[in-house]
Amino acid sequence: MHALDYFNARLEATISPMDYVKAKQMSPEKYFLIDVRNGPTHVRSVTIKDANVIPEQELQSRLNEIPQDKEIIVYCWDVWCNTAAKVAKFLLEHGYKVKELTGGIAAWKEMNFPVTNSDQGNNIPDNCGC
């Protein structure tokens, strides 16, 4: 793979927090944001504002909650976590249009973009799965 092919593929498969905020402002109904993080509930209590919380461990049983007609944006913890990449691959295999939010919630919070406290997912095992 040539460098140009790599960067084209990377840009097609990811979206930065800044680009997502801009795109969402221009076309708010186009996107469906999913927090796919696993792990202890107490560390998952903060989510990106308006994100749908569907942990990777519940994805298969909750697939019906994800709209086929929107662009799906998935995120996990940080650049070191590959849970969002696993979810993106799974959703792509099931016919969804998907991008991974680069940097996960860590990058989002670093840019001081809006977050909310969430008490969803209280029954998720404490196993991260990254």
Q: How would you describe what is shown here?
A:
The chain has a single domain, classed as Oxidized Rhodanese, domain 1 (3-Layer(aba) Sandwich), CATH 3.40.250.10. With 130 residues, the protein is of the alpha/beta class. The chain contains four helices and seven strands. It is 30% helix and 19% strand. The protein starts with a helix and ends in a 13-residue tail after the last strand. The longest helix is centred in the first third of the chain and has 11 residues, at 3-13. Helix 3 (83-93) links the parallel strand 5 and strand 6. InterPro entries: GlpE_sulfurtransferase (IPR050229), Rhodanese-like_dom (IPR001763), Rhodanese-like_dom_sf (IPR036873). Residues 27-117 form the Rhodanese domain. This is Rhodanese-like domain-containing protein.
In short:
This protein is of the alpha/beta class. Helices cover 30% and strands 19% of the residues.
Lateral arrangement of strands in the main beta sheet: 1-6-5-2-4
Rg of Cα set: 14 Å
Mean residue pLDDT: 90
Helix content: 25-40%
CATH superfamily: Rhodanese-like domain
Largest sheet: 5 strands, parallel
Low-confidence stretches are 120-126
Strand content: 15-25%
Q: List the helices and strands in order.
A: HEHEEEEHEHE
Distance between the termini: 26 Å
Number of helices: 4
Shape: globular
What CATH calls the topology is Oxidized Rhodanese, domain 1
CATH class: Alpha Beta
Number of strands: 7
